[in-house]
């Protein structure tokens, strides 16, 4: 296969760096929401470029559900050390132990929704007034509605009908007491843009993005990673297959895709030929037609 050409539009990088610098200028206590996925890893790269040669002036915040892929946690800890950024971790298990949320039961049990409470508690505890996230408009229709500076009320909730205009790249960070802002520097990027950027900048990513052998089960036409967190039925017998993950969330809400892609060039080729969207492998989005929008309304990432 011939080598891929340089196809990343650097104007997107310039825009993202401008947005990140605006966050540092307009807010007192920002944080970068880190999931261990490619989008938040891209944000770390952009933040480092935005303030080089100084250190990034805000921490990474990770909401650990306890159901993460081990590869993701290992990569998170490595990146925090390598980048020199402060890493703050808050745990969904603590929210469960305190009785603030209740563990789901049943075949499709997941902690994906539960982490919203942990996130909002962390924002209040640490007094963050802006949280930088890696959401992109091409991912999902609810995210397409959101502005780059997305204001959340004093309950952490989002109202799609109360979005501020953002004309001529003017970003308004003024908020009332108790409110906070979610900021999306790569909102205008596509999945292909992210991968092209990762390739061109040589950004390390977790191994699960590449093809590897793994035990999976087949459910609802998708390949779920076998794990002790997944509630399986007797007929759901794990088997080994060569897969990779196109998007990374919890082990209970992220499906794998059959793949032989062991390089970023191969991954880019797969994306170009894909007939389903990136979020098509996110099981949590399939709970209802408006699953993402409902999560965002109550404070989700």
UniProtKB/TrEMBL annotation:
The organism encoding this protein is: Paraflavisolibacter caeni
GO molecular function terms listed in the Swiss-Prot or TrEMBL record: ATP binding; sulfate adenylyltransferase (ATP) activity
Primary enzyme class:
transferase
**Any single GO BP term:** sulfate assimilation
**Lineage of the organism:** Bacteria, Pseudomonadati, Bacteroidota, Chitinophagia, Chitinophagales
Q: Which family does it belong to?
A: Belongs to the PAPS reductase family. CysD subfamily.
The Phosphoadenosine phosphosulphate reductase domain sits at: 30-255
User: Is Manganese given among the entry's keywords?
Assistant: no
Q: Which UniProt keywords apply?
A: ATP-binding, Nucleotide-binding, Nucleotidyltransferase, Transferase
Alphabetized InterPro entries for the sequence: PAPS_reduct_dom, Rossmann-like_a/b/a_fold, SO4_adenylTrfase_ssu, Sulfate_adenylyltrnsfr_sub2
Sequence intervals crossing the membrane? none
Q: What is this protein called?
A: Sulfate adenylyltransferase subunit 2
Q: Does the keyword Nucleotidyltransferase apply?
A: yes
**Which Enzyme Commission number(s) are on file for it?**
2.7.7.4
């Amino acid at each position: 296969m011939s080598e891929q050409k340089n196809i990343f539009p650097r104007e997107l990088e310039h825009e993202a760096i401008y947005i990140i610098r605006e966050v540092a200028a307009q807010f007192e206590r920002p944080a970068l929401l880190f999931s261990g996925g490619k989008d938040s890893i891209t944000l770390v790269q952009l933040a480092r470029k935005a303030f080089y040669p100084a250190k990034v002036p805000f921490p990474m915040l990770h909401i650990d559900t306890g159901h993460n892929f081990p590869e993701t946690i290992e990569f998170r800890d490595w990146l925090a050390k390598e980048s020199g950024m402060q890493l703050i971790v808050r745990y969904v298990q603590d929210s469960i132990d305190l009785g603030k949320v209740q563990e789901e039961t049943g075949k499709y049990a997941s902690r994906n929704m539960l982490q919203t409470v942990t996130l909002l508690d962390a924002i209040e505890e640490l007094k963050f007034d802006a949280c930088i996230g890696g959401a992109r408009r091409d991912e999902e229709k609810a995210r397409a509605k959101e502005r780059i500076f997305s204001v959340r009320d004093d309950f952490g909730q989002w109202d799609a009908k109360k979005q501020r205009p953002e004309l001529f790249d003017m970003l308004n960070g003024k908020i009332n007491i108790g409110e906070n802002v979610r900021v999306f520097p790569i909102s205008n990027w596509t999945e292909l843009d992210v991968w092209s950027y990762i390739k061109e900048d040589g950004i390390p990513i977790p191994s699960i993005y590449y093809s590897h052998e793994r035990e999976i089960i087949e459910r609802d036409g998708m390949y779920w990673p076998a794990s002790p967190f997944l509630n399986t039925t007797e007929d759901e017998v794990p088997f080994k297959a060569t897969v990779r993950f196109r998007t990374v969330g919890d082990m209970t809400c992220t499906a794998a895709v059959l793949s032989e892609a062991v390089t970023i060039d191969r991954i880019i080729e797969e994306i170009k030929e894909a007939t389903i969207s990136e979020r098509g492998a996110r099981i949590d989005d399939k709970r209802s037609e408006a699953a993402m929008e409902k999560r965002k309304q109550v404070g989700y990432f």
